[in-house]
Amino acid sequence: MMVKFRETFITPLKQAFVQYREKRKLHPRLGKVDFGDLKRAEPISRNFGFERGKPVDRFYIERFLDENSHLIKGRVLEIGDNAYTLQFGKENVSQSDVLHYNNSNGKATITGDLTNLPQVEDGSFDCIILTQTLQFIYEKESALKTCRRILKPNGALLMTVPGISPLDDFEFGHNYFWNFTKQGVEELMKTVFPYADTKVDHHGNMFTAISFLNGISLNEIDPSLLEKSDKHIQMLISCRSIKK
Q1: Distance CA 7, CA 3 (A)
Q2: pLDDT-derived band of residue 6, with 50, 70 and 90 as boundaries?
Q3: Closest residue by Cα to residue 96 from 111, 82, 110
Q4: What is the pLDDT of residue 181?
Q5: How far is CA 120 from CA 43, 77, 205, in A?
């Protein structure tokens, strides 16, 4: 009888202790935060973590493209190279084009400025993949108007932009103009793609943002911590817009 009473008493006590311990992990007492390897003024990597593995933002970019891979078909335009066109469009792509702003890129089939591409005819593309590009274009509205013009009816724009990100320290760093929010992209698309079927999402959370800012790579973190999206900490914004 005494044993049964003790079990009845101790089990809730254990549960309360476990809950208290977990709460303390989430909300450490003032002055008791353990910063560990993150107690530093310099990031672990200034190259987005490329030398350590795959950058954290690529998880959200590639999942977004995979979810919309059925739209990557026909004639497809991508910026800089056609890696994502080939990876996610596969045999559904009949023609792959690459846009670069100058003639230094041997992969480019079109050279020019996305804000003004008179050499490309209206309604040329079934899909445009515009990942992590708009932040480098000061006249972002003009760039999106070009995308709208050169897309075919029912063509798809698949775009990602940074919300929280280190600045590029290499080729394009001096032209990094913008970070975005979900609300900002929604309003931008209402203006530039007013009659399109548009869906905008935010991705990331405190952990992924800190990891990305530090240049920690995907293979170094717990995959389960990638799944939660926090509307207050929007690390990356995705936008799928189908021209009507």
Answers
A1: 6
A2: low
A3: 82
A4: 98
A5: 41, 11, 39
Q: Which fold has domain 68-203+236-242?
A: Rossmann fold (3.40.50)
Q: Which residue in the block uniquely carries the two structure tokens 């900490």?
A: 233
Angle between helices 182-192 and 140-150 (to 10 degrees): 50
Backbone angles phi, psi at 120, to 5 degrees: -105, 125
Per-residue model confidence as pLDDT tens digits over 65-96: 999 999 999 999 999 999 999 999 999 999 99
Nearest to 223 by CA among 68, 59, 37, 26: 59
Query: Could you please report the per-residue DSSP string of the chain?
Result: -HHHHHHHHHHHHHHHHHHHHHHHHHSPPTT----GGG--SS-S-SSTTTTTSSBTHHHHHHHHHHHTGGG--EEEEEES--HHIIIIIGGGEEEEEEEESSTT-TT-SEESBTTB-TTSPTT-EEEEEEES-GGG-SSHHHHHHHHHHHEEEEEEEEEEEESS-PPP-STTGGG------HHHHHHHHHHHSTTSEEEEEEE--HHHHHHHHHT-BGGGS-GGGGS---TTS--EEEEEEE--
The pLDDT value given to residue 29: 82
Give the lowest-confidence range in 44-48, 150-154, 188-192, 193-197. Answer: 44-48
User: Backbone dihedral region of 154: left (phi > 0), alpha (psi from -120 to 50 degrees) or beta?
Assistant: left
The pLDDT score that the predictor gives to residue 168 is: 74
pLDDT for the residue numbered 186: 98
Nearest-angstrom CA–CA distance, 63 and 196? 22
